[in-house]
Amino acid sequence: MALPNDVLLLIGEELQTDRWNLVCVSTHFHALYLPLLYRKVSLRDWRDAASFLCAILKRPSLATAVRELDLTKWRAATVSEHEREEIAKNIPLTEWVSSISHSQTESDQCIWSLGQGSSDAWIAIILPLLTQLRELRLVYATSSPHLDQIMQRVVTGEKPFSDQPAFRHLNTVALHHREDLDRDTESQESSPSGLLLPFFQLPSVRTITANSVVDKAPVDTDSTGSESPRAGSSSVTEIDLRASSGNHGMEVLIASCAELKSFKYQHSDAHVLSHGYRPSAFHRSLSNSKTTLETLWLDNYGNHYPFTAAGLNQSHDEWFGSLAEFTALREIRIRLTNLLDIRYQSDPAIPLLDCLPSSLETLYIEGCEERHFGMLVSQLQTVVKNHRGRFPHLQRVGIEGAFHDVALEDQNVGSGSVESAISNKILQATESLHIDCLNIGMELRIHDRALSHL
């Protein structure tokens, strides 16, 4: 007896590497399982993109089967003269480009960019077809005029999105800026991409990850012409910004979120426009999320230069401000000098006990220098001793710093554990804290990022 299609589909969903073989079994299996092959699409270069585009133009039902589009493995590939001619003469391709363009000039420019192997152009003409997309992992060049244009039309509802809203199901977006995709063409004269902002204006998007985001002054329109989302208008609940520079505390992005639950930020001074890490600016930006924010990572393994565009870089050690009023916070990762106000004294102006919210479950403190270690251990002991009344949910505490034993490092302890490479001085200083944590079932971890290879 033949199995029902529903059962066959369940079997196919459990198979990952053999789906192509299923498609080749029979005509029935081909029709049944082909959409499964298109459920998650990964494109590595313009040739993959061209093949995929031709397939979904020929069979639009395959485009609606796509739930995930992954472009993280995209690599620039050369285009021969013969291949350029084939692209220009591809009737379904040129007709599709013409149908989504607003003018013949725009259509011609797009075809030319496709013939250059531009990731910007190829991705831009594919996205409008993927109406059922749930997850998008996108790479883009410094200047991405075609992507910028198509995403602005998504927001404004212009052609080709005038009949129905685009990306109604898109939930998760990852944007990865790649300088290796930059091309020495006239398109590079345009402004840097403003690709991030439109995704904050899509009602279904909840999670956004991006890298190399450089914060600008909070104005209505940035240099790319992209309108900033209105305060409280975005459905985004999770923001993860890596190797970025938040000169103004990412105020526009944070303020747009009605119910921000997770904010992760890694600073980098490598950007030309970086003015250094300014923790107090993030405190101001996040002030409207005090009752919703559950996860806060600030400057996780950030990159700081002695000098930035603003001059001597001293602001990265300033105090973030008290976290006690962030009543929903469960997890905090933050540098010691941003957690406690110790810039001009050995002891904090406000004790750690009064800087933390009662909702806290995990506290991870980075960048602890040895000169502050004793003070921090003392502050943590007070927190642990008051956990029942003040921090009943606290379960894990971590301290990160330069704690490795230099002598052991010189002996190349490749087969040893991380714990065995931590200096005895540090271990002895935390012995009483370890005992206090052990007595109440709390986890304490001492970490040195230099020992991560062990």
List key phrases describing it:
454 residues, alpha/beta, twelve-stranded parallel beta sheet, two-stranded antiparallel ribbon, 20 helices, 14 strands
Indicate the topology:
Blueprint lengths: L4 H10 L4 H5 L3 H11 L2 E3 L3 H13 L1 H6 L2 E3 L10 H9 L1 H10 L3 H12 L3 H8 L8 E6 L4 H12 L15 E6 L18 H4 L7 E5 L26 E7 L6 H6 L5 E6 L11 H8 L8 E4 L8 E2 L2 E2 L18 E5 H4 L22 E7 L1 H16 L1 H4 L5 E6 L4 H5 L7 H4 L2 H6 L1 H10 L2 E5 L7
Parallel strand pairs: 1-2, 2-3, 3-4, 4-5, 5-6, 6-7, 7-8, 8-11, 11-12, 12-13, 13-14
Antiparallel strand pairs: 9-10
Helix pairs in contact: 4-9, 6-8, 7-8, 8-9, 9-10, 15-20
Protein name: Leucine-rich repeat domain-containing protein
InterPro entries: LRR_15 (IPR056867), LRR_dom_sf (IPR032675)
Pfam families: LRR_15
Structure description:
By secondary structure, this protein is of the alpha/beta class. Among the domains are: 1-37; 41-178, no CATH class; 347-454, no CATH class. The chain is 36% helix and 15% strand. The chain has 20 helices and 14 strands. It has helices at 5-14, 19-23, 27-37, 46-58, 60-65, 81-89, 91-100, 104-115, 119-126, 145-156, 196-199, 251-256, 279-286, 336-339, 370-385, 387-390, 406-410, 418-421, 424-429, 431-440; strands at 40-42, 68-70, 135-140, 172-177, 207-211, 238-244, 262-267, 295-298, 307-308, 311-312, 331-335, 362-368, 396-401, 443-447. It has a 12-stranded parallel β-sheet with strand order 1-2-3-4-5-6-7-8-11-12-13-14. Strands 9-10 form a two-stranded antiparallel ribbon. Helix 7 crosses helix 8, helix 9 (119-126) runs parallel beside helix 10 and helix 15 (370-385) packs parallel to helix 20 (431-440). The protein is elongated and about 75 Å long. 35% of the residues are buried. The model is unreliable at 184-190 (pLDDT under 50).
